């Protein structure tokens, strides 16, 4: 028992060193644009289940919504190595600028500004200025597609499923609607520009697990 404990105590620091090394390597590859190396790491599952693995997957996946969800998960992970979190926040910033989400973009800039030791290499000429708050995140285009996971008569059931999806890093909304004289609470994930993008996300994230889902267009 004592030998086993000593072995475990000696092994834990090695795991921590390996995790830090993986984070540094993936961040370097991301900055250098070494996509082939990142794809190879994802293919062989080298760092599955770690922030480094999530970042490598996010950088190489074709599904933009899934990539952003992974970036957000990394950004919320207090255990993520700073260089990994910096790349994730940098990508979140770029996404927020393109989609005109100033609050999210400025959150990213605040984090990056607080960690200059790992963020200085991500921007040429220093951090950009914060975006003005003239627009809000509610000003995104009103028509879009999402993936609906279920519609529940009990709001508590919808809240539970929505919380599970938010814990995975996904954007979730609960819409109240009426069908057959019944009030239902629909749990909907993501905001996609096309039905094709929504379907691709649904098949990748929920289809493989056998979870029920369907695409829904949201129009206002």
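^ Assign residues to that structure.
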């Amino acid at each position: 028992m004592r030998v086993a404990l000593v072995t475990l105590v000696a092994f834990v620091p090695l795991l921590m060193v390996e995790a830090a090394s993986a984070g540094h390597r993936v961040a370097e590859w991301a900055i250098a644009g070494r996509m082939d190396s990142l794809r190879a790491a994802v293919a062989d599952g080298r760092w599955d289940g770690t922030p480094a693995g999530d970042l490598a997957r996010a950088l190489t996946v074709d599904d933009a919504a899934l990539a952003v969800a992974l970036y957000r998960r990394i950004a919320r992970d207090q255990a993520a190595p700073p260089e990994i979190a910096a790349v994730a926040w940098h990508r979140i910033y770029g996404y927020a600028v393109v989609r005109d989400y100033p609050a999210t973009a400025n959150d990213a800039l605040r984090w990056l500004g607080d960690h200059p030791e790992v963020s200085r290499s991500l921007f040429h000429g220093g951090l950009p200025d914060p975006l003005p708050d003239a627009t809000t995140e509610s000003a995104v285009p009103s028509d879009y597609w999402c993936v609906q996971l279920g519609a529940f008569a009990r709001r508590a059931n919808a809240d539970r499923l929505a919380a599970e999806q938010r814990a995975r890093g996904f954007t979730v909304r609960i819409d109240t609607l009426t069908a057959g004289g019944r009030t239902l609470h629909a749990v909907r994930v993501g905001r996609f520009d096309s039905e094709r993008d929504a379907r691709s996300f649904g098949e990748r994230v929920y289809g493989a697990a056998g979870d029920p889902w369907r695409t829904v267009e949201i129009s206002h």
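The two ends are 65 Å apart (CA to CA).
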